[in-house]
Design brief:
This protein is an alpha/beta fold. It is built from 12 helices and 13 strands. A 7-stranded parallel sheet has the order 3-2-1-4-5-6-11, with helices on both faces. It has a two-stranded parallel ribbon with strand order 7-10. A two-stranded parallel sheet has the order 8-13. Helix 1 packs across helix 8, helix 3 crosses helix 5 and helix 7 packs parallel to helix 10. It is globular, with a radius of gyration of 19 Å. It starts with 14 loop residues before the first strand and ends with a helix. The chain binds nicotinamide-adenine-dinucleotide.
Length: about 325
């Protein structure tokens, strides 16, 4: 992946910090940046939900550096930001159910850790600070498609932390003139997304079950829908944001999604086809804190940074199944 360059300016003299770079999305950003000759790609990660195996393929590269540390530690954040041009902040504790089970842990990393990173990046005078927000900030808003200006009431502690991130980011842009840019990601999937652990996302769980003939569970009736988005689209958005006009993007948040909506049962059926399985899903109780339908309007990102989805969801599902097959 990532043969096509999406960044608009030469990055061979630029130094990047990817927090959460050992995670699913972060490791794709690292892969792209190394492939396109960034001068340095530094990762700060505590491996709490990420994996060394996601970055071990880069360890031989002299332009790659791994710092094992937590964003909850301000000194660690300062060390990681030293001499960096761009921060792509993706370290967080993901998962709505995790945050419902343990709101304090989620707050510590996603809220306190976020503020630490903002302060460290401000003091290190980085050019841009791009961070991962989430479609969860739309909460109980039922509009479809969702536009950035209309957020609802948060439905989980995770959503509260992402809303708080956006508020801090806007304040840092206003007070300190920081070029802070937020992306509300909508249900991202792709290679390297973990199917393991109590809080794994649906798509890797489905694929894992289908390829290994293990039970696959669908929460609720399966008709809930999401804007499932292949991970390369996220990488593209981050790269476009590096050089978008500062006045247009500073302190702003943008939906990043495929810009369509697919039901969970349709996703399951596509994955079943691509994996060649005949397994039937088991339906179980709906989960708390989940919205029924979610679909993004991506026109703000299109107008401001020239974003459009590069890989549509069906193709992304096929690529993801191929990748999981290759790891068996
Ligand atoms: N995957 C999605 O669908 C999705 C949707 C919306 C937003 N996001 C956001 O995108 C970002 C990346 O998500 P992901 O899906 O790649 O998750 P992930 O769990 O695979 O990656 C997160 C990474 O952050 C690291 N991390 C966690 N706590 C840390 C800490 N205290 N210090 C340093 N590193 C820490 C983890 O070890 C992991 O490598 C997160 O901010 C997440 O909230 C993801």
């Amino acid at each position: 992946m990532y043969e096509t360059p999406w960044h608009k300016k030469d990055i061979s003299s630029k130094r990047f910090l990817v927090t959460g770079g050992a995670g699913f999305i972060g490791s794709h950003l690292v892969e792209y940046l190394l492939k396109h000759n960034a001068s340095e790609v530094r990762v700060l990660d505590d491996l709490s939900t990420g994996f060394i195996s996601n970055i071990s393929l880069f360890s031989e590269n002299s332009r790659f550096n791994f710092i094992m540390g937590s964003i909850v530690d301000l000194d660690e954040c300062r060390k990681a930001c030293e001499g960096v041009d761009f921060v792509l902040h993706h370290a967080a504790l993901g998962s709505v159910p995790r945050s419902i089970d343990n709101p304090i842990a989620t707050h510590e990393v996603n809220a306190n850790g976020f503020l630490n990173m903002l302060v460290a990046a401000r003091d290190a005078k980085v050019d841009r600070f791009i961070y991962a927000s989430s479609s969860s900030v739309y909460g109980d808003n039922t509009d479809s498609p969702k536009k950035e200006e209309n957020v609802g009431r948060a439905l989980s502690p995770y959503a509260v932390t992402k809303k708080l991130n956006e508020q801090y980011a806007a304040v840092f842009a206003d007070l300190y003139g920081m070029n802070v840019i937020g992306f509300r990601y909508f249900n991202i999937f792709g290679p390297r997304q973990s199917p393991n652990g109590a809080y794994a996302a649906a798509i890797p769980l489905f694929i894992e079950g289908l390829l290994n003939n293990k039970p696959v569970y669908i929460n609720g009736d399966g008709l809930q829908s999401r804007d499932f988005t292949f991970v390369s689209n996220v990488v593209k958005a981050n790269m476009l944001a590096l050089s978008a006009p500062a006045d247009t993007v500073r302190g702003q948040v943008f939906n990043i999604a495929a810009g369509g909506s697919t039901s969970v049962i349709d996703i399951f059926n596509s994955l079943k086809k691509f994996s060649g399985s005949s397994l039937a899903p088991t339906f179980r109780e709906e989960r708390k804190g989940e919205i029924r339908n979610s679909c993004a309007d991506v026109s703000k990102a299109k107008n401001a940074i020239g974003y459009s989805a590069e890989v549509e969801s069906k193709k992304g599902l096929e690529l993801t199944v191929e990748w999981f097959k290759s790891t068996i």
